[in-house]
Amino acid sequence: MSLSPSVALARDLIRCPSVTPADAGALDVLQGFLTAAGFACTRKIFTEPGTPDVDNLFAKIGQGPPHLVFAGHTDVVPPGDAKRWRHDPFAGEIESGRLWGRGASDMKSAVAAFAVAARDFVAAHGSAKGAISFLITGDEEGASINGTAKLLDWAKEQGERFDHCIVGEPSSVLALGDMMKIGRRGSLSGRVTIEGVQGHVAYPERADNPVPKMARLVAALSDHRFDEGSAHFGASNLEFTSVDVGNPAVNVIPARATAAFNIRFNDLWTPERLENEIRSITAQAVGAAAQLDFTPCNARAFLTNPGAFVALVSRAVEEATGRKPELSTTGGTSDARFIVRDCEVVEFGLTNESIHKIDENAALDDIDGLTKVYRRILDLYFERP
């Protein structure tokens, strides 16, 4: 069957099994396409002790300002048991009007859609009065250490200055165009350990059971109302993700209990203030019995205030899809949290109902529709008819 340029490029990207941190040729495919379209491409491999090396791509055409950058990733999460998939997760099969494979929604199709939109815009108008660039990483689904953050630092060292950014994460919910992200909640993870004294359950006076203390702490933190939300964010929310004593015996009081938790927080908090709040709640619940350890936080809450750029993207979405997008800050984290330090950023992409799932897929019409949205954004941004 005849495929549109966006679908064909998305299929070629899906056929590269680029499970984080492997690139598996995905950036070669994209670089070849962008080079043929006139973009100057640079590959950067970043390293950090204790983490895998990651390949990244920066591509640019024109000179800014204004400088519009598209950010995204070609790495994907593992497919799980490939035998449970309708098609091979890296075959890029097309069936029933949909493209199937890991990365179809998150987010190789969006990368392909913007690449085609940018190519067609440049072909129609020549170099824009300004610049268009791509920040593409292979580390978004992983530790996010050797990816976008370092690529931004490198670009700044080269004298690049970005005015606005679109991240192609799958932001839509039920239909293409029904939602765009103008911010994200922060994410803070921690682990708590309560030491006890192991002993026989028949002689509790000779032991110190950490389980009741952990139960009190889990209840205290889970029930605590951190806030009531803010103008653009819902209430902050803490969830325990594991509780473990490592004890298979029913007649032994365990020596230790551990638990892990994560809190998604709004713009009323900083990670430092949240850590202090959690320590205070812990002290009230179990005194000095608990040891708290927090994972270094690289995901602070952020917001792009609804202004001219948000209005431009919203207008482009509505004109291309017929839907006025809801402005949202829901969902998980994304690399937009790094980009916001340098310029205004919004996220817009495909629907997200199948991301990270078995049989991830995207409708061909949506991939082409997303290309039209991105092209309309380019037209409006650079004021082209």
TrEMBL record:
Pathway: Amino-acid biosynthesis; L-lysine biosynthesis via DAP pathway; LL-2,6-diaminopimelate from (S)-tetrahydrodipicolinate (succinylase route): step 3/3
This protein's UniProt keywords: Amino-acid biosynthesis, Cobalt, Diaminopimelate biosynthesis, Hydrolase, Lysine biosynthesis, Metal-binding, Zinc
Top-level taxon of the source organism: Bacteria
GO biological process per UniProt: diaminopimelate biosynthetic process; L-arginine biosynthetic process; lysine biosynthetic process via diaminopimelate
Entry annotated with the keyword Membrane: no
Binding residues annotated for Zn(2+) 2, in chain numbering: 106, 141, 356
Binding site for Zn(2+) 1: 73, 106, 169
Catalytic activity field: N-succinyl-(2S,6S)-2,6-diaminopimelate + H2O = (2S,6S)-2,6-diaminopimelate + succinate
Residue intervals of the Peptidase M20 dimerisation domain: 182-284
Entry GO MF terms: acetylornithine deacetylase activity; cobalt ion binding; succinyl-diaminopimelate desuccinylase activity; zinc ion binding
Cofactor binding, note field: Binds 2 Zn(2+) or Co(2+) ions per subunit.
Active site: 75, 140
A Pfam match: Peptidase_M20
InterPro entries in the cross-refs: ArgE/DapE_CS (IPR001261), Bact_exopeptidase_dim_dom (IPR036264), DapE_proteobac (IPR005941), Peptidase_M20 (IPR002933), Peptidase_M20_dimer (IPR011650), Peptidase_M20A (IPR050072)
EC numbers, comma separated: 3.5.1.18
Listed cofactors: Zn(2+); Co(2+)
Residues that span the membrane, as ranges: none
Function: Catalyzes the hydrolysis of N-succinyl-L,L-diaminopimelic acid (SDAP), forming succinate and LL-2,6-diaminopimelate (DAP), an intermediate involved in the bacterial biosynthesis of lysine and meso-diaminopimelic acid, an essential component of bacterial cell walls.
Subunit structure: Homodimer.
Family (UniProt): Belongs to the peptidase M20A family. DapE subfamily.
Protein name as it appears in the record: Succinyl-diaminopimelate desuccinylase
Organism: Methylocystis bryophila
Lineage summary: Bacteria, Pseudomonadati, Pseudomonadota, Alphaproteobacteria, Hyphomicrobiales
